[in-house]
Each structure stands twice: as C-alpha cells, then as structure tokens.
Design a protein that fits this description.
Blueprint (H helix, E strand, L loop, with lengths): L1 H35 L14 E4 L3 E2 L6 H15 L3 E3 L5 E18 L2 E16 L4 E7 L5 E4 L4 H32 L1
Parallel strand pairs: 1-3, 1-4, 2-4
Antiparallel strand pairs: 4-5, 5-6, 5-7
Amino acid sequence: MRSEKLELKNKERIIRSRLLLISYFLLLTSYFLLFACGYQMVGSKRLPFNSATIKPVQNKTYEPKLEERLHRALSEEFISQGINVMTVNGDINIETTITFFELGSIAVVNENVQEQTITMRVDVKIIDKERVIEFNSMESPIRITFQSTGTVSSSVMQKERAIDKACREIASEIVGKMILRYAG
C-alpha cells in the first residue's frame, strides 16, 4: 500500500514537471514568434523626443474656458505617457485649436430635454525639428453625454463634467495618434 502511494506521488511529480516544461516551451515559443514577426511594444521610451511644449490652446468657439480644460487634459495625458511637459523649449511643440463645440439633445420628454451630447472638434499641429504633423477635426472616440434633468445647477455641473471628459478623451486620442505616427 505504501509503495503504491509513493509510486502515485512520483507519477504526479513527473506529470507536473512535464506540464511545467511544456508551459515554458509554449511561452518561449510565443515570445519568439511575437517579436520575430516585427511586432514590438510602443511606449514613450522609443519616441524620438522626451518632452513637449503645449502652446496655449486656441478656442474658436463661443463656449468659454474650453482652451484651459483641453490644455490641462493634454498636459495630464502627456505626463501619464511618460513625456515631460515643458513651458518652453520642449523637443516638440503642440499647437491646438478648438474649431467646433456643440450641445445636442438626444432625449426629450414632453418638450423637456433629458439628456444631451457634446460634440467637440480639434485641429492639432505637432512641430519638431524635422517635420510637421497635422491631425484635423479630431473628436472623442466615444459619445459624451450627460443628464440635463433636475436643478439648473446640477445640470450645469453635469455639463462641466462632460466637457472635462470630452477634453480627456480627445487628449488621449491626440497623444495616441501622435505616438503611433512617430513609432511607425
């Protein structure tokens, strides 16, 4: 009986070690296949710059203070990607213009607006020592909505949060496209 238990434990150890060996082999094989095909991880370490100067954002709409919010969102996004934000003399310069801002109704009950959407478009120019890259009519990749029911102050607060979210989404889209352009 004791020898049967010992033999069973030995078989289990052999099976575990073989499974572990197979797992390592599959992991190593997938690693070589992934990187041998030309795929690579893209991050700020591979970019030809370490810092960016974000010029004051131009707001060509009638919505107040959009330029400040987008500038802040861009700065935060660059920093989160490991790119230093400089007031002057960055490796690249970012010029941004807000060209369109609109509130639209998407839900109406008894002629009262219940939910609204924000549409915002931005033109971006990235200037470095060698080239100029332009992205025109950039928008948030997701639809930004907010509830406009309740008191006026709660509706205004919801709108303000939605504007900040739209700015963050656009900033993320800008930095993502820029990283892809430089990495490619």
